[in-house]
Amino acid sequence: MTDALLSVRNLRTHLGDERDPVRAVDGVSFDILPGETFALLGESGCGKSMTALSLMRLLPGSGRIVGGEVLFQGRDLLRMPEAVMREVRGGGIGMVFQEPMTSLNPVMTIGDQIAEAVARHGERHSDGGGIRGRVLELLDAVRIPDPARRLGEYPHQLSGGLKQRVVIAIALAGDPALLVADEPTTALDVTIQAQVLDLLRTLQRERHMSVLLITHDLGVVAETAERIAVMYAGQVVEQATREAFFAAPRHPYSRKLFDSLPSMEKRRAHLQVIRGFVPSLRSEFTGCRFAPRCDQAMDLCREQAPRWDDTDGHGTLCHLYPLHLGAGVGESAAMVRASAPAAQPDGAADGTAGEALLDTRGLAIYFPIQQGLFKRTVGQVRAVDGVALCIPRGRTLALVGESGCGKTTVGKGILQLIHVTGGRVLFEGRDLTTLSGAELRRRRSEMQIIFQDPVSSMNPRMLVGDIIAEGLVAQGVGGDREAHGRRVATLLDQVGMPAESARRYPHEFSGGQRQRICIARALAVEPKLIICDEPTSALDVSVQAQILNLLKRLQDELALSYLFITHDVSVVSYIAHEVAVMYLGRIVEHGDVETILGRPSHPYTQALMSAVPRVAEEDGNGEGRKIIRVEGDLPSPASPPAGCHFHPRCSRVLPVCLESYPASTEVSTGHSTRCHLYDAPGHLGQIEDSET
Question: What sign does the CA torsion over 453, 456, 458, 460 have?
Answer without folding.
Answer: positive
